Amino acid sequence: MATEIASAPPDQAAAHQVHPHQRERLALSYVVLIITTIFLLLPIVWLVLASFKSDVELSAFPIKVLPEVWRVQNYIDAVTMIDFPRYAGNSVVLATTNASLTVITSALVGFAFARIEAPGRGRLFGLVVALLMVPAVVYVIPQYVVFARIGLVRTWWPWVLWGISASPFHIFLFRQFFSAFPKELEDAAEVDGCSLFRIWWQIFLPNAKPAMAVSFILAFVWVWGDWFSPLLYLTDANTTLAVKLANAYVDPFGNPLITVTLAASILYALPLIVMFFIGQRYILEGVVTTGLKG
Amino acid sequence: MEAQNTSKNSVSRRDFMKVAGAAAASGLLATHLSAFTGRSTARAQAEAEVSFMIHGGELSEEEIQVFHDENPGITLTRLDVDQTTLFARMAAGDAPDIWRLQYPEFPQLLARNLVLNLQSFFEASALLKLDDLVEPNNFYKATDAFNIGEGPIYGMIKDWSPDMTVFVNDGLFEAAGVDPVPQDAPLSYQEYADLAAQVTQTEGERVNVVGYFFNQGWIDRYWAAWLIPLGQGLFSEDFRTANIVNNEEARAMVKWHLDMAQDKVAFSPLVQSSAWAGPDFINQSVAMVQFGYWFSAFLRINALNVTGDDLTPAIESFQELMDSGKIRMVPAPSWGGEWSSPTITATAAVIYRETANPDEAFRVFEYYNAELPAINRADLGWGIPALRSMFDRLPKDGTYGQLMWNALENELPHTGTIIPANPYLPGGEPGAMGQAFLGKWEEYLNGNLSFDDLLVQIEEDTNDIIETNAFDMGM
Amino acid sequence: MAAEAPSPAAARVVVTERRYLSRQTRRTIAFYTFIAPWLAGFLLLGLGPMLIGFLASLTNYNGVNLDTLQFVGLRNYERIFTADRDLGLAVSRTILWTMLNVPIWLVASFILALILDQAVRARGFFRTVFYLPSILPIVAIVWAWRVMLGQNNGLLNGILSITRGAPVAEIWLGGNNAIYSLTVISVWAGLGSGMIIFLAGLQGIPESLKEAARIDGAGAWRVIRHVTMPLMTPVIFFQLILSIIGSLQQFTIPMILAGGQLGSRPPDSTYLYMIHVNLQTFASQRFGYGMALIWVMFVVIILLTVIVFWTARYWVYYEADIK
C-alpha cells in the first residue's frame, strides 16, 4: 500500500486512514475495474489482432484467435500508402492550435458566466445552452459558404477562428466547474483590489487544471477525429489524418483495404493515447478549494 | 404558406448568396479576415488552379506530380469524393472544376446546366479522339436530359466493366455435385436461383457457403438493365412515374431478389457478409459473385499474385483453383432470353460548366483519360479502357489471365446498351428506388409486409421523390 | 434585470474611469468583455449560418437547383407531419435508443469515476484503458465490433458455437438485436469521455467535507449519497443534457455498422432520426426538407432541455448561488 499512498495526492492519502468498510469497498472496486477493463479491452485486443490479418483471414470462419501469418505489412502499407507523417503533422498542428485556443477562451467565458453577475447573463447563458443543442448539420454547410465567401476555405484559418470563438460545450463545462468553487475564493481577492481578469488568471485558472485538462483532451480528440470539416474545408494537400483514414486505404477500384485501415487506425490512435496518459495526470491533481471550505 | 411558389417568391441564386455574404461581411472581423487571405489569392492568380474531385486510389500523388512536371502553369488539386461536399462547394461558388460520377447522376446535372459541353474540346484534342471512344461513353452523350446516348459529349468514363457478369467457383460446384455453369452462353436468372440453392451449404444455423451475391447498392440498376431487352423501363416515358406495381416483369424481378434473400441463398439482412463479397469469394464462403471484369484484377492481386508468408492455406487452395481454370467469369445472366451485358456504373468524369479555367481543366481531363493514369489503370486490368487503342494493354498472361481475356472477348459484343436514368432522381448507390426497396425488404423478410404492399410502397416513395424533385427543379 | 449591454464605445470611455464606477457597472463591463470572443464568434460564424440554414428549410433547395431556388413557405414542415412514412419509425426508435443509452452511459461512467477517484492501484492505467475506446476513429470502433458481433466471423457467435456444440449464426448487428448492440457499442465508446468529465468534477469536491462526514460516522455509501452526489449535481446535470443531445443526434455508428459506408440504410431497429434526416437529404435529395427535419428536432431538444432545466432547481446544487 505504500507506493499507492505516495503517488496519491495529499488529500487522498489523508482519506486513506483506516475505515471499517475501506478494505471491502476497495476489493469490490477492483472487481468492477477488472470486469470493465475486460469489457473495454476485449474488442480492442481483437482489433489489434485483426490489424495483423489479411482481409481474407478477417472474414474467414470458423474464427481463429491469432493471425495465421502476422502481417506486419499492413502497418508498412498504412504508413507508405499515404504520406503518413505529413498528415499526422497536420492533425497535430490543427488539433493543438484549436484545443489551446478553445480551452483559454472557453475558460474565460465560462468564468464570466459562473462568477460575474451582469444584466443579461441568464439569457445569454440560455443562449449558450441552446447553441449546445444545435445539431452541427444545421450550420455546417452554410458556415462553409460564409467561409468560402471570405476566402478562408482550403486554409487552416477556420480552426483558429473556431478556437478563438470558444465552444458552447466547453463554456458550459467551465461554467459548471467554476460554479462549484467556493465564493470566499474570489471575495477575498476582490477585497484586495484584484481585477476580475487577475482573479480568473491567478486564482481560478490555476485551480482549474482538471477542467482544463479535460477540456483540452476533449477538444484535441474532437479535432483529431473530425473528418468532415477537413473534408469540406481542406484539399488533399493540407488535410488531416482522419480524412485519409476514412478515404485513402482502398484498392484502385475503391474497395476497402480493411485490415490496413485497422492498422492505420491503431497508429492514428497512438498519439492520443500518449497525450491522454499525460493529460489525465492533471485531472488527478487536487484543487486548492479543498483547503478553504473546512 | 399562403402564396405557393409564385414567381414573386422565387429567390435567385444571387439573392441566396447575398444573404450568405451579408452574414459574413457584417462586423469588423470580416475585414481582418480578408487581410489574412491576400497571399493565397495572389498565388492563385499566377497559376491556373484545377481541382478534381476523385478518389485517391484513382489519381495518385505520383500521377499528380508527373502532371505538374509536364504542365507548368497548372496546379492540380485533388479533393476527396463526397456528395455533400460537392453540393456545398457548388452552393459556395467553390465547385470543383472536374468531378467523378456514375451514369445515374448525369441526366440531373445536365438538366441543371451544371456540366460543360465537351464536344469542341474533343474535336480539337490530339489525345482523345471521338472515334476511339468505346460505346459505354455514350452514357455521357446527350441532346438533353431526357435523351441520352447520342449528341454532344459531356463526359468520359475512366474505364468500365460489364458489371453483371458472374464469377463462379467451380470447386464449390464440384463439391456440391452440381454441373458447372456454361461458359459460352448466358443462363437465365431463374436458373441461377436454382443453382444458388444447390450450391448453398448450411451447418446448423450457419450458412457456410452462400450460393450467390448480388450488389444491394445496385438493385434498382439491375432492374433497369434487365427491363431494356424486353423493351420496357422502370418509369413512364416522361420519367414522371415509377412503373412497378402493374408491370409483371418488374414485379418478377423484385420477387427474384426477395426469394434469393428469403431462401438464404444470397447475402441479405438474413445472411450477412463477413466483410464484403471479395474476401468472402476467396474464402470460398460464396460460390457465385455478380461483379464486372474489374473483379478479375481484385482476385489477381489478392490471391493469384500472393506469395511467401502471406500465402495462407485458404489463399493457396484458391490459387490452385485459379491455376486449374476453376475460377471463371461467365456471361451475365439473362432475363427474357437475350444476352445483354451493359455496364451499370459507367464511372466517369465531367467538367463544371462555370469552371474558371476550361482549357486547363480539359488538359487535366486529357491527362487523366489518355495519359499516365489511364495507362496505369489499363495495365492493372482494373476495368476495361475507355479508349479502343488501349485494349491491348489488358493482361492475358497465364491460365487465369487467358481465361479472363477470352471470357471478356465473348462478352464485349453484348455490352453496347445504354440505360436511361431518371433526370428527376438523384443517382446514388442505391438510387431512390433501391433505397425504398432496401428500406422495406427487412419488413417483408420478417413477414410483416406483404409483397403487394412492398411494391406499392416502393412505387409511392419513388413517385414522391420524383414529384418533389420535379417541383424543386421547376420541371 | 432588463438593463442593456453597454456599447463598445461607451465601454471604452468607462474603462478609463473605472474607479468612479460602481462595482456592479465594472462587473457588467468585465462580463461583456470576457464573453466577447464567444459572442463575436457566435454573431459572425453561428447566427448567420443558422439563419441561412433556417431559410433553406423554407426553400425547395435540393442540392443542385440553385437556378430554380424558391421559397415554399412551410411546405417542408407540413410534409413532416403529413406525408413522411418513415418518420414514426425513426421517432420511436430514437426515443427507445435515448432511453437505453443515456441512463446506462450516465450511471456506468459515474460509477467508474467514483471508483477511480479512490486511491486504487494503477489509476493512470485504468483511466487510460477506459478512455481508449473514445480515441479510436469510428471506422475502427465499427470494425472492432463487427469482428466481435459478426454473424459468421464474430467472436461472440464463435464462443456460443463452442458452448452449444453447434454453429450459431445469431444476427447481432441486424434485426431486433441491432439497437441493443448499438447501445453496447455506444456505451463502450463513450464511457471514457463520460468518466473523465465526472473525474474532473469529483476532484473539485473538498476532501474535508467528505472527511467531516466520515468523522460524523457516515459510511462510504452515505458519504457518496449526502456529500458527493449533491456536489456533483451540476456535473451530472451537464452530462445528462449532453448525453440526451448526443443520443438524439447519433447516426454515424449505426450507419457505418450497417454497410460499412455512409449512406447505407441500417436495419429498422436502429433507424434513428438523424439517419432518416440523412437519407432524406441525400438519398432522396431533399435538402430543404432535411433542414426542416433538423429544425424540428432542434425545437424538440430545446423543449426537452427546458424541462430538464426546470427540474434542475429541485436537484442541482450550485455553490455560488447558495452562499
Summarize the structure in words.
The complex is a heterotrimer of chains A (294), B (475) and C (323). Chain A has 294 residues and is mainly α. In chain A, 71% of the residues lie in helices and 0% in strands. Chain A has 17 helices and no strands. The radius of gyration of chain A is 24 Å and the shape is globular. With 475 residues, chain B is α+β, with helices and mostly antiparallel strands. Chain B contains 18 helices and 14 strands. In chain B, helix 9 crosses helix 10 (248-262), helix 14 runs parallel beside helix 15 and helix 17 (432-445) packs antiparallel against helix 18. The longest helix of chain B is centred in the C-terminal third of the chain and has 22 residues, at 451-472. The radius of gyration of chain B is 24 Å and the shape is globular. Mean pLDDT of chain B is 88; it is low at 1-45. Chain C is mostly helical and 323 residues long. Chain C has helices at 8-16, 23-57, 75-82, 87-116, 123-135, 138-149, 155-164, 178-203, 207-215, 220-248, 252-259, 273-283, 287-315, 319-322. Chain C is flat. The two termini of chain C are 21 Å apart.
Helix and strand topology:
The complex is a heterotrimer of chains A (294), B (475) and C (323).
Chain A: H1 2-7, H2 10-15, H3 22-50, H4 55-58, H5 73-80, H6 84-115, H7 121-132, H8 136-149, H9 157-164, H10 168-179, H11 184-191, H12 196-204, H13 209-225, H14 228-233, H15 241-247, H16 258-284, H17 289-293
Helix pairs in contact in A: 5-16, 6-9, 6-10, 6-13, 7-10, 10-13, 11-12, 13-16, 15-16
Chain B: H1 13-25, H2 29-46, E1 48-53, H3 61-70, E2 74-79, H4 83-91, E3 98-101, H5 106-111, H6 119-124, E4 141-144, E5 147-153, E6 155-157, E7 159-160, E8 166-169, H7 170-175, H8 189-199, E9 201-203, E10 206-213, H9 219-227, H10 248-262, H11 277-282, E11 286-289, H12 294-304, H13 313-323, E12 327-330, E13 348-351, H14 358-370, H15 372-380, E14 384-385, H16 398-411, H17 432-445, H18 451-472
Parallel strand pairs in B: 1-2, 1-3, 10-11
Antiparallel strand pairs in B: 3-13, 4-5, 6-13, 7-14, 8-11, 8-12, 9-10
Helix pairs in contact in B: 9-10, 14-15, 17-18
Chain C: H1 8-16, H2 23-57, H3 75-82, H4 87-116, H5 123-135, H6 138-149, H7 155-164, H8 178-203, H9 207-215, H10 220-248, H11 252-259, H12 273-283, H13 287-315, H14 319-322
Helix pairs in contact in C: 2-13, 3-13, 4-8, 4-10, 4-12, 5-8, 6-11, 8-10, 9-10, 10-13, 12-13
